[in-house]
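Human: I wish I could look at a protein chain and see how it folds. This is the protein in question:
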Amino acid sequence: MNFSTLPKIELHCHLDGSLRPKTIIDIAKREGISLPSMEIDGIQNELIAPIECESLDEYLEKFSIPNLVMQSKENLKRITFELFEDAALENVKYMEVRFAPLLHTVGGLDVEEIIQSVLAGMKDAEKLFDIKGNLILSCMRTMSVDSAFEVVEKGKKFLGEGVVAIDLCASEEEGFCGKFVAPIALARQYGYRVTIHAGETGVGKNVLEAVELLGAERIGHGVFIKDCPEAYNIVKEKRVVLEMCPTSNVQTKAVNQFSEHPIYQFHKDGIKVTVNTDNRTVSDTTMANECNIVFKEFNISEDDYKQIYLNSVEASFADSETKDRLKELMA
C-alpha cells in the first residue's frame, strides 16, 4: 500500500512537538532568542528524541526549545498553519491538534488570545488546503487543578468554533485522574469531548480510571491496558478508542521495539485503535511513516487499514457532515 497517497486521519498530534526546525531558527533570529544551534542539523539534534530514550520524561525534555518561539500571536498562528500544511501535503484529510494554552503565556498572552491565534492558523490552512481540523485543549497534569479549571473556563467560548475537546497530558503518575475529576466534569457539562493521556508509562489502571472517573471517550496511547485486565475489558466493552503512536511509544519505552507494539493484537481482538504521529518533529515522523511501520511489522491488509481509517473517522470529534465526507474518501 502507498500510504503517501491514501487518505489519512490524525487524532493525536501535539502542536509544540511538530514545529519545522527552519521556523524555529527563523523566529529565534528575528526575536533574538538564544538557541543551542542556529543550523538546521544542529537544531534537529536538539529537537528529535532518540529512539533510545530512557523514559517519557526524557522524551518530554525536547519540548523546551519549541516553546521558546511559541509566545506570540503571530508565531502561534504561523506554526499552526505550517503544521496543517505539512499534514495536508501527505494527504491527511482531517487532523485534531492539541496544545496546552498555559505553556504559551510567558510573553504576556492570555489563554483566549492563545486559542484564537491557533484557531486562526488552522482556519487559514483550511482555506488553502484540502484538510479540515479541530483543536483539543490540553491541561498539564504537572500543574494545579485550578489551572485546569482556567483552561476549561476560558476555552468554552470557542466550543463550536474549532475547539472540540479537553485533554490531560505531561508526565504520567499512577492515580492522577482523581485529582482532576472536578474540572473534567465541568468540561463535559460545557460540551467538551474528553480524551485523556493514560497508560503510556506502565500504569494500565490509569486508563480504567480515565474512563470511570473522567468519562474519557478516547485514550491517548493506552498501551498498558495489556497488563491490566480491568482496563482492557472496559476499553473493549465501552468501545473507547485508543490513539496509538508507534514511534513515540518506542522512544518513550512504552514498548522496546516496534514488533512488541500491541496495536495489531488490540485491533484483531476488536479494540478500536487509530494510528497517529504524536509529535511530528520530536518523533521525526509523518502519518505515512507511522502507517508504513504498522504495515511492515504486522503485514496489515487493505481491509485492516480501511477499518482503522473508519475507526478514526467515527472516533473523531468532527461534525456529522465532515465525517460523512471523510467516509466517502474510503468508499
About this structure: The longest strand covers residues 132-140.
